[in-house]
Design a protein that fits this description.
single chain; about 260 residues; alpha/beta; Rossmann fold; 7-stranded mixed beta sheet; two-stranded antiparallel sheet; 8 helices
Length: about 260
């Protein structure tokens, strides 16, 4: 098995890099002493960010072996042993059988993960089954409304919001809001990217037995998907001042009663 070189690890980011956006940290809250599962985790920067914020045990799952090997190497750079940070190579739909524990205080997913999965209900059932009683699932995804707008200005509706077919010529992790922490070969679950309407996602989580605590919409994007977006001090991209805005990201917290 290939072990990542120092150069490859640097290409994936620094082990001590904070990969979390401000609103994610605020909405998830204090993770001190809690267990957390991140799926899919890409090269693990998000998982390691939660570990550095005090999570007692974090697990990352990703279908890409190279991404998982890089994540393990980055964890070693932080002197995190496997009982603090573990990484598993497996598809998202197989998570319940692949991860070391059967329930976690927090299941974190997003960053474009749903765009690479064709079956949202199956995803919701898998993720919900891994939430411990009293725990919650947290999702932060690119808003599908943004996919319906033109790529130049984000001001005109040019695509059908409700189309669920894969986008033409869309390779894995190549969409404008693809998470830079993801691995370009990690798309074994999807067969292309597609948009999932917000209502479909929230309904799937509710049907899987979780209680929806909130659905928030944000005017910030992780990447400059439209040429008019401007980078702010928090590292996110937003429309210029005075320009009508649309949601670029949404987040959901869904809990399992104790």
């Amino acid at each position: 098995m290939h072990s990542p070189t120092p150069e490859e690890r640097r290409g994936a980011g620094r082990a001590d890099e904070d990969a979390l956006r401000d609103f994610e940290v605020a909405e998830v809250g204090d993770v001190t002493g809690r267990t957390l599962l991140h799926l899919p985790c890409g090269t693990g920067l998000g998982v390691l960010s939660w570990a550095r914020r005090g999570a007692a045990h974090v697990v990352g799952l990703d279908p890409s072996e190279p991404a998982v090997e890089t994540a393990r190497a980055l964890a070693a750079d932080l002197s995190l042993t496997q009982d603090r940070a573990a990484f598993v190579a497996a598809g998202v739909y197989d998570a319940a059988e692949a991860v070391p524990d059967r329930a976690y205080d927090i299941v974190h997913t997003g960053g474009g993960a749903l765009r690479r999965l064709p079956d949202v209900e199956r995803w919701a059932e898998t993720a919900a089954a891994l939430v411990a009683p009293g725990g919650f699932l947290y999702l932060a995804e690119p808003h599908p409304l943004a996919d319906a707008l033109d790529d130049e200005t984000g001001s005109r509706v040019v695509h059908d919001y409700f189309v669920r077919d894969p986008w033409p010529d869309a390779g894995p992790d190549t969409g404008p809001d693809a998470d830079p922490d993801s691995d370009p070969d990690s798309d074994s679950d999807s067969g292309g990217e597609r948009a999932h309407p917000v209502g479909e996602v929230v309904t799937a989580l509710a049907r899987a037995g979780l209680r929806i605590d909130f659905l928030h919409e944000h005017d910030a994007a992780l990447l400059p998907r439209y040429g008019v977006l401007r980078r702010h001090e928090d590292g996110c991209y937003r429309f210029p001042a005075g320009r009508p805005r649309v949601p670029l990201t949404y987040s959901v917290k869904a809990s399992r009663p104790a």
